[in-house]
TrEMBL record:
PANTHER family associated with the record: RIBOFLAVIN KINASE, RIBOFLAVIN KINASE/FMN ADENYLYLTRANSFERASE
Name of protein: Riboflavin biosynthesis protein
InterPro entries: Riboflavin_kinase (IPR023468), Riboflavin_kinase_bac (IPR002606), Riboflavin_kinase_bac/euk (IPR015865), Riboflavin_kinase_dom_sf (IPR023465), Rossmann-like_a/b/a_fold (IPR014729)
Task of the protein: Catalyzes the phosphorylation of riboflavin to FMN followed by the adenylation of FMN to FAD.
Family classification: Belongs to the ribF family.
Enzyme Commission numbers on file: 2.7.1.26, 2.7.7.2
Amino acid sequence: MKKNFSTLVSKNTITSLAIGGFDGMHCAHQELFKHLDENGAILSIESGYATLTPKKYRQEYSKYPIYYYVLKDIKHLAGDEFIKLLKEQYPKLQKIVVGFDFCFGKNRGYCIPQLKEIFEGEVVVVDEFKIDNIPVHSRTIREYISNGELTIANKLLNKEYKIYGTQIKGQGLGSKSFVPTINLKVDDFLLPQAGVYITKTILDEKEYDSITFLGHRVTTDGSYAIETHILNSDIKDDEYEIQIKFFKKIRDNKKFESFEGLKQQILSDINEAKDYFLN
Ligand SMILES: Cc1cc2nc3c(=O)[nH]c(=O)nc-3n(C[C@H](O)[C@H](O)[C@H](O)COP(=O)(O)O)c2cc1C
Ligand SMILES: Nc1ncnc2c1ncn2[C@@H]1O[C@H](COP(=O)(O)OP(=O)(O)OP(=O)(O)O)[C@@H](O)[C@H]1O
């Protein structure tokens, strides 16, 4: 995880700011960042609903320092009060970059015309950015991920959707009856729909081809699990910070009549994932 370095950059040096929520740091957000100058920064307004790139993980996706405001601390401000606050905190601010639908201040009562009117500097407004005619928004990407449509979500993100987790103890059945898996505990991130996914798993900064199951283990103990099996490699059990990049869903979660039936299906899933990475 790339550490947030905004505390190392003085606000006094910032000349341009991109403003918004920025959960996901998706393609449209990146379009905004293209308008920042070398002393640019990102101002992220935290509503508390960021689940694609929770605050702690967001800096990884931009070279610009990210500063945060908590929405509930600033939502009472009138438009001119918000701009005054920015001018006080960023005295060299000359340019504000926002998207076509940006609104701010009390009751979101101030939008682009008011921003242009109040801010004595340049206001760059980016038109609605689309990919394959799909408007790119965090909410849309969340919906695709929740529906297991990772291929489209990744297109809108312009990267593979990635979650962070820590290793936890499983049932101890994997190596004995199926294949060895690393069981994960994941907080903060939106989880894709239950099922089996082609993934890459990052352990100690090394990336491995993998296959990941999410869902209730309906064939065994019924409990919810996130488990990843590393392809082509023997990984010893260890305490890892784990990252999983999702590429594609290959099937739904399923209840099998026998452990042998599930094992055969898992072996076939593994072959499908291996083929995917070969091509
Ligand atoms: C690729 C893969 C696919 C899986 N598919 C299913 C499934 O369709 N249904 C299910 O009940 N469990 C599924 N599982 C979970 C297994 O039940 C689980 O790996 C097994 O219970 C071992 O759990 P443990 O690691 O906690 O010991 C799958 C696991 C993997 C790795
Ligand atoms: N598709 C887009 N095209 C142009 N600008 C956008 C687009 N999506 C967001 N922006 C702009 O990016 C900034 C960050 O906004 P925000 O993260 O709230 O957008 P979002 O992705 O639409 O999120 P949500 O779906 O939660 O509303 C804002 O200035 C917003 O206007």
